[in-house]
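R.M. (postdoc): so does anyone remember the format we settled on? I'll just put the structure tokens first.
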């Protein structure tokens, strides 16, 4: 009997930012790195004869954790272990996808064989290639044990195929947590799934991605997508000038304690210039049709250093603590990475401990200081270059 331990990748940017990541090469997040350390410890007592992984960055980084525990193993890569290719949905916010493609989103979630979008890969094709790969690995490593690092829907498609779960019944197979293990056995050409979605190595440390999120519970309860996801829309600084000034003024006051030194005309003029250059540089985040936050990007500042500049990150007071601010950061990453920028930069008041804590948790680090209108500002930077982690980095 061959044992194939299918491992879902660690938390990646799409999981954190709530953006679609099929073939899009997203990096592992700070939480994901911590999950990888737990996974490496889990794998130390797991006898393994080989290691295979999807060739995308997040799976190669996850496979590095296996190699940390088993440095004797070579990493074998195969595009057949990739996640489903979601075509025109790639790197789009799930809320915007749900708003623009409501029926396709319903099918993708609850009956994926009916799902189809331009450039998308059929669900059946994913199940076919995953099954073929499992059979080939079973034949290649008879009576061996193999770690196979893949993706959430790809692994679910394989499990459904083996268990005979039809497309319309996919809800019976829950979403697998990041770095969870699923055992698939191959014996005399017969595939079986003794157990699925074991993330026990995360439980005691509070490292589960799903334990921090509610979207997957809502989807399983068939909650309307509009109540599960947030939507990005352009903010028109001409028509919505009052809204913009209110948001920026609130941010200023939260940072400095009052609005002394805040000049609405100056900041509004900058916002108009940024939006005129690129509507993506000034957007609002809506939840349930109500304003949740605003982000403003400066398309020119930092360009000479390969950086993208974030001028404003604002979340409505009653919406804070709901993991919405990180979605605004995800928007900035998406915009500037497509332009080839290497990092995000922003200033935050040195006394604003809450904001500094948020940015540090998002992966930013302090790289300098500057003098602002009201005191010292901390320059913070987030490296957004696509990269694959090495075992020694875990």
């Amino acid at each position: 009997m061959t044992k194939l331990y299918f491992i879902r990748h660690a938390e990646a940017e799409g999981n954190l930012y709530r953006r679609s990541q099929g073939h899009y090469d997203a990096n592992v997040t700070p939480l994901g790195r911590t999950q990888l350390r737990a996974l490496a410890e889990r794998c130390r007592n797991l006898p393994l004869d080989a290691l295979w992984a999807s060739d995308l960055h997040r799976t190669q980084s996850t496979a590095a954790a296996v190699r940390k525990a088993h440095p004797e193993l070579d990493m074998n890569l195969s595009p057949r272990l990739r996640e489903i290719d979601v075509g025109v949905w790639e790197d789009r916010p799930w809320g915007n996808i749900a708003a623009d493609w409501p029926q396709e989103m319903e099918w993708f979630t609850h009956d994926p064989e009916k799902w189809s979008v331009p450039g998308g890969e059929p669900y059946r094709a994913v199940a076919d290639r995953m099954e073929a790969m499992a059979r080939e690995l079973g034949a290649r490593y008879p009576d061996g044990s193999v770690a196979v690092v893949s993706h959430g829907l790809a692994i679910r498609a394989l499990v459904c195929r083996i268990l005979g779960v039809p497309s319309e019944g996919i809800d019976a197979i829950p979403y697998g947590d990041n770095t969870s293990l699923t055992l698939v056995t191959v014996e005399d050409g017969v595939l079986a799934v003794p157990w699925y979605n074991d993330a026990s190595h995360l439980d005691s440390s509070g490292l589960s991605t799903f334990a921090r999120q509610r979207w997957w519970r809502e989807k399983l309860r068939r909650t309307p997508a509009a109540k599960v996801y947030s939507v990005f829309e352009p903010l028109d600084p001409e028509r919505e000038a009052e809204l913009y000034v209110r948001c920026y003024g609130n941010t200023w006051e939260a940072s400095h304690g009052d609005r002394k030194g805040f000049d609405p005309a100056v900041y509004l003029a900058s916002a108009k210039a940024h939006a005129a250059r690129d509507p993506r540089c000034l957007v609002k985040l809506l939840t349930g049709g109500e304003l949740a936050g605003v982000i403003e990007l400066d398309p020119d500042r930092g360009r000479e250093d390969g950086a993208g500049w974030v001028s404003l990150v604002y979340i409505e007071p009653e919406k804070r603590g709901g993991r919405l601010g990180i979605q605004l950061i995800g928007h900035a990453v998406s915009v500037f990475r497509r332009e080839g920028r290497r990092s995000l930069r922003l200033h935050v008041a040195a006394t604003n401990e809450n904001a500094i804590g948020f940015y540090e948790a998002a992966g930013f680090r302090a790289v300098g200081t500057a003098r602002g209108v009201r005191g010292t500002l901390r320059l913070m930077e987030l490296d957004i270059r696509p990269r694959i982690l090495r075992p020694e980095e875990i």
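R.M.: ...and that's the designed sequence above, right after the tokens. Also worth knowing: DSSP finds 14 helices and 13 strands in the chain. Residues 123-140 form the longest helix (18 residues).
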